[in-house]
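Curious: why this fold?
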Amino acid sequence: MIFKELYNNLGDLVSLWLNYYLLSSLSIFLFTLVLGCASLGPLPPAKPFSQQESDRIISNLQDQGKKVSTFQGIGTLLLKKGEEEIQANLFAVGSNPYKIRLEITHPWGKPLFYIVADEKSISVLSLRDKKYFRGPPHSFDMKELFLYGLDADLTWKIFSGSVPIVSESSGTVSLKPHEISLYNKQGEIIETISFSSKTLLPRSIYFPKKGLSILYSEFKEGYFGPHPLKIKVLKESVDQLAVIRYKSFMPNKPVPEEIFQLNPPPGFEVVNLIDS
C-alpha cells in the first residue's frame, strides 16, 4: 500500500517535471523565433558623419599622408583614352617635397618614357622619338600622358597612394553616409571623399572643378596601416583613364638624390618648353 502511494506520487512528480520542461522549451523556442525574426528586419539607415567625426577623419588622413616621405613602387600602368589602350610596366619613385621619377616601359621591356618632375620643372625623355623635353611643370602639353594638367602635389599623392586634401579647403561637411566634402571660402564643394561602409578606408575622391576622380582598391597592410595597391585616375572631360597597379610598394626607403636627375643621351633632340 505504501509502495503504491509512493509510486503514484512519483508519477505525479515526473508528470509535473515533464510539463515544466515542455513549457520551458516552448518558451525558449518562441523567444528565439522572435529574436530571429527581429534580426531579419531592416537595419536603421546609416547617417552622415557628425561635424566632429568629419574633422577628425580628415585630420587623420592628413597625418597619414605626412608619414610618407619617400616611396618606391613596381607594377603596371594601363592608359586608356577613348578606344585606345596601352598597357605598360611602371617603376615609380618619389621623395618629398614633390619629387617624382617615372619609368614607363613596354610589357616586353622596351623603354617608352622617363619622366622626372618637381614643383619647378619637368623633364621627359621620349625614347621612341629620341627627344628630350624640359621646361616648367605645366609646359609639357602631351595629353596622351594622363599627368598633363596635374600639379606636382596631386601627382605625388596619386603615385604614393596617399589621399590628397586640397589646401584651399575652408571646412568639411558630411551630406551623405560614408562621405565627406570639403568646401572653399565661397562655400563651393571642391573635393568629395567616399569611404567604405565596412572598413571606413577611402574608396574614391572626386574633384568637381577638375572633373577628376581617384579610386582606391586592393588594400594591403603596410608600414602605416592599409595601403592601396590599385589606383584608378579618371578624367571625365577627356574620357581618359589610368590604372596604376603595384606589385610591390615600399614607403620611406632611402632614395638617392641622383635618381631625380634626367639628362639627354647623345643623339637626342633637346626641346626647351615654355609654360602654357
Notes: The chain has two domains: 1-41, 51-272. The longest strand covers residues 70-81. Residues 1-41 form one domain.
